Amino acid sequence: MLGAYAVRSRLHVLTWLSALTIAVGIGCAASDANLELRPDAFETATSMNTEEVRADPVSYLRAVTERCRALEQYTLLFTRHERRGFFKMMHGPEHIRCWFRREPFSIRMKWQDTHLKYNESVYVAGEYNDQVRFVTRWWNPPLRPPPGVNRVSLSTPVFWGESQRPLTDFGLERLMERTLAATDRAGAEAEVRYEALVRLRNEGPPVHFIRIEVPTKQSRTPVQELYIDADTNLPAGTVLRRASGDVNAAYFYEDLDTNVTLTDNDFLLPAEREERASES
Hints:
Elements: H1 2-18, E1 29-30, H2 50-55, H3 57-69, E2 73-84, E3 89-101, E4 106-111, E5 118-124, E6 132-136, E7 150-152, H4 156-159, H5 172-186, E8 191-199, E9 206-213, E10 223-229, E11 235-241, E12 247-257, H6 270-279
């Protein structure tokens, strides 16, 4: 009986702790069969730099990375699919409106999917003991009920399998840096190949489809399908595949606006904004 009690107690603790993990939100589980992540070839489109990209895709990726590093702030709509959790199930799609500021490093995310528990999350480097703040749509003890502000460390969501990466890994620049790090690490064993000019969605902009393969011994996702907007030369999305071909994660970026002026007020949760307004 003592053993059974210990097991029940441990499960209770795990349940309680996992409720604290917001990653950057929980998505709906989905099977690979339901993920339409392979774009169709967009044969009628042309791009001024298609042949240049085809001739030297690695140099192009480095140029794209530099363009990302030059962005000081932007907003976009982020769509996320991730394999995560104890059973490594695919979660998503999650549709998230995002605000990004480089200095001080700041991220705000607002989930557009109203069926999800989490509503908004914010991180500003150095504030609130470097913690992520978030609010939920409904109460799930021990989380604070809406509009209460909850706080967790950056590593908590990753530790509990609610997100593959910490919130500080979000952004166009980080995507490109991870991509180049993988190819540089593989060296001559990396294969970077231009595939085609494609569309990711109906009437969407043409994007360069670049396929990257590295040795399986160096990565759990040896195949990456990378999509770069042919007009802006900024990332439009990526799909990361395991050696089996199954999707491990997929991230897409649309409605990118780099002509924004973001202030500290943009990186407050609604309850925090109301509190500051009442104090002034």
